Amino acid sequence: MKTERILLPVDGSESSYRAAYCAAQAAQLCGAEVLLLHCVDQTEQNGEAPLVDTTLAEDTTTNRHPKQADALGMATANDLIGPVRDILEDHGIRYMERIVEGEPATCIPRVAQNTRCGLIVMGRSGKTPSGRLPVGSVTGRVVGAAHCPVIVAP
């Protein structure tokens, strides 16, 4: 399989960190870069300010009116992505990061398609941004909606 970019959604769950190891191995095999994605679902934010969509240069069609980033929200997203950065760096993998506003089950396939990812690697189950509710159904919905193969890490 030849792919140049792998999408790796990160939500701070153990499952998403395990998926990072799978994505690193796949990236090494394919010579691909990894796009780290964190989706902020405003329905879970309980009134916190929305985050900005840190968009890739070639993907200018989404979030044409980005909202002001909330410093605390950005710090939280950075904390969730940090351990995955370490995993990818330890494996010598090139990566980019993106934080988007929206429900993960719809954002993940959309971002994968808009950024021309040839593969999505994600955990079997995760947690909502608040960490209170399991959201394993997100993975199933992504598998059904994705335009590319999806590897589900245990």
Automatic annotation (TrEMBL):
InterPro entries attached to this UniProt entry: Rossmann-like_a/b/a_fold, Universal_stress_UspA, UspA
Domain of life assignment: Bacteria
Domain UspA: 4-153
Pfam hit, one: Usp
Similarity field: Belongs to the universal stress protein A family.
The protein's name: Universal stress protein family
Lineage: Bacteria, Pseudomonadati, Thermodesulfobacteriota, Desulfovibrionia, Desulfovibrionales
